[in-house]
Predict the structure.
Amino acid sequence: MTLYADSLKALTVSDLAAMKQAGEKISCLTAYDASFSALLDKAGIDIILIGDSLGMVIQGHNSTLPVTIDDMAYHSRSVAGARKRAFLITDLPFASYATPEQALANAARLMQAGAAQMVKLEGAKTEVIQFLVEQGIPVCGHLGLLPQSVNRLGGYKVQGRDEPQARQIVADAEQIEQAGASLLVLECVPAALAAEISRRLSIPVIGIGAGIDCDGQVLVLYDMLNISTGKRPRFSKDFMAEAGSIEEAVRNYHQAVKSAQFPGPEHSY
Ligand code: KIV
């Protein structure tokens, strides 16, 4: 079988869908600049996420809330020029998609100035998602822990532990798929809940702190390299601990995702 990981052509949204169909795990890491973009791409990482986590790991804020659309477009463009194969997803930052029209203007900016192939937004914003998809903009949903809603949630906590909340997340995931999203990120939810959602949806589900049964995995690059200034979350792993170089750490992560060795139970809820 030819793995998509072995192909050198630029990945498309159809390739990601085909990977789920074929049962091939999808590897994803965040990056914010050209040097790391090229390094991740060479290591075979399937998706590079220009996450608004840059507000914390690059800008030094204690949340993602201060990040602007200008910041996202700048970092997206920096990453885009340096990669050949990896698929690019860029975050719409806090308060940049309150209405379909605002979302369209900002998503267009990320695709035109930032060369994004897809935009990611947090929460069950089905009206916004449907509108963007109708305008030809591929969308990635994001459920579970929503960092842009940290003040409403009262902290960075596991979501969906009780049954009513778990059912709400399942219903939201199904509505996001129906609205036309091509991908879903599930952050910090119990592994059993993420497994159920990954089974129910036909679009790929990328987990972070969501257990081994998601269709793919994402981590914040600086957490898995253990160079973040903050505390590394329990669901992340220090891939530098057993690697002689950053390249080796990223390759080891990619292999661990592809072979379903990461995340282990110690990284899951
Ligand atoms: O901003 C980001 O890096 C993200 C990941 C945590 C999924 O959204």
Summary: The CA atoms of residues 23 and 215 lie 8 Å apart.
